[in-house]
Amino acid sequence: MTSNNKSRFYNVFSSVIYNAFIVCLPVLAMNSLFMGTAAISNSITKFENKVAIYMTTEYEFFGGKITIPSRITNSFDYFFTYAPITLAANSRGEKAEWIFDPTKTDVLEGIANNDYQSIVFIGHGDRKSYTAVDENVTARDFYDLYNYDCFVKRKSGSLVKYTCGLGEGHPRELHSIILENYENGAAFDSTVTFIGIAIDAWIQVLYTKE
Fold this sequence. Notes:
By secondary structure, this protein is an alpha/beta fold. The protein is 49% helix and 21% strand. The radius of gyration is 18 Å and the shape is globular.
């Protein structure tokens, strides 16, 4: 092994160790500690409103040559994100309802359901869309829903978009369509990993106001 290869191997190995022990383990410990609390809080407490949490997280590696199906990755990401996202919803007075592998129809029906005053998207997407299990749900789809159905009201709560924030447009493009106040919630303006989602979700818990 040449010195350059040794240096490259060392850098990769160091990165893996750092992410595994410095980042992943503390997040894993936090989630393990509070999963039961979140489940009990979400089950027994009466809430006035609900938040729909959509998750579909199929991963591809090496240019799509290797694909890990969402039924596997959902379980992994769910373990890292369930506690903070559920507790954040409960602290806002909302019951968390998780919807796995939603279709485009599922997402639009959830947006049209006035019982849901907040929305969380987890998975793939960009500034103007969310990737459902069958196809993208675009800003135009959301706009048309509100434009042609007078019974669909804009949400009084928040939109938290745990997807990549690349592409054209403003990071809160969907917020301005779905919400009464586009400033409510959060969105990423770059690529995002499941660890980034988990950390940001815990920040949402810590800084959520009644």
